[in-house]
Amino acid sequence: MLIIGAGGIGLRHIKGYTQTGRARLSVVEPDDKKRADMAQKFALVDKYQGIGQADLNSFDLAVICAPAHTHLPLMTKCIAADLPFMVEKPLSVSMEGVQDVLEKVKAKNLLARVGFTRRVADELQQLRSDIQAKKIGDLKLIYMNSSQEFPKYRPDFQSTYYARPEMGGGAILDAASHLFDMLIWIAGRPKNISCMYDRLVLQGTQTEDTCLINVCFESGVMANVVINQFQKPNTNQQEFIGTTGNLMLDHSKLIYRNSDAATPAQTRDFMDGLVPMEAHQARFAMQANYMMDALEGGPCHLATLEDAELNLRLALSAKQSWDERRIIELDY
Ligand SMILES: NC(=O)c1ccc[n+]([C@@H]2O[C@H](COP(=O)([O-])OP(=O)(O)OC[C@H]3O[C@@H](n4cnc5c(N)ncnc54)[C@H](O)[C@@H]3O)[C@@H](O)[C@H]2O)c1
User: Whose CA is nearest to atom 38 of ligand 1?
Assistant: First the structure.
């Protein structure tokens, strides 16, 4: 496996692939110190300063975890070498060149997936299968709120891609794109998008820390997505409202209500008995196993390039909506 980019998320992937016990790893990382650190901490086969130094034909899979503005050229190199890949989210920072990548991957029938990690979570898989089984009747409306003090979780945020819109930072491309993936996976293709966004509190960045987004899907389902990245409490709630009941994901808790009773009809905490950071890291090992199973011909429910392309159009349309003060309609 070739891990491309050994920053915050690259480290998670290196640990994740190592934890599977199925992979031998090499790393591409331009930063000399980080490259040396990784080589010291992990049993790497090789390390390279740039992708050009690696013999791509000698690898089974690339994991692209450099910032989003580099994804397109890195994917293009993998495709040219017929190297399957998993690329981190978001797919890119503009639509330029994206269709070309999708077409080439399709023409070569190359395995390619995108790192929207939440698809790996058992609670989200359960929620999706409950909705498909009509547990809440017909899904009509979705409310999502993912808000927390981002600098507490990412103290270096001012010096990473997060601070720069052209590198894929900010509440919409960086954070909301995870929620968009849940929406696209569950509600299908988005049709109309409206949004407001701003940088209300965080200093030292050129990106928005807050967004209020409304989406209407082709299916008629509507969704409201709100994010702020400065509030003290860590809120992570997604509520799916159907004609006969509601399903709410509250962090790792899945809550089912089918009346106005004070106590929910069902509650299950998927993190019960687990250590949060270990469980988070375990998801990267699960994702790695899914990718390697897919390489061996198994099915794979991780986000496709087509899902990620829709996701990117949704994110860019949200920004366009506020920039132009209008509702954006997507064409298919
Ligand atoms: N799935 C998730 O939960 C999740 C979480 C955080 C970040 N991400 C995504 O992962 C990507 C990287 O984020 P991060 O937090 O690790 O950023 P980071 O800044 O911590 O690390 C990025 C690393 O990539 C290296 N790099 C830059 N250009 C490169 C190139 N051309 N080739 C190889 N390496 C290169 C940098 O030197 C740096 O070490 C982004 O797309 C981000 O959106 C995903």
Answer: 7
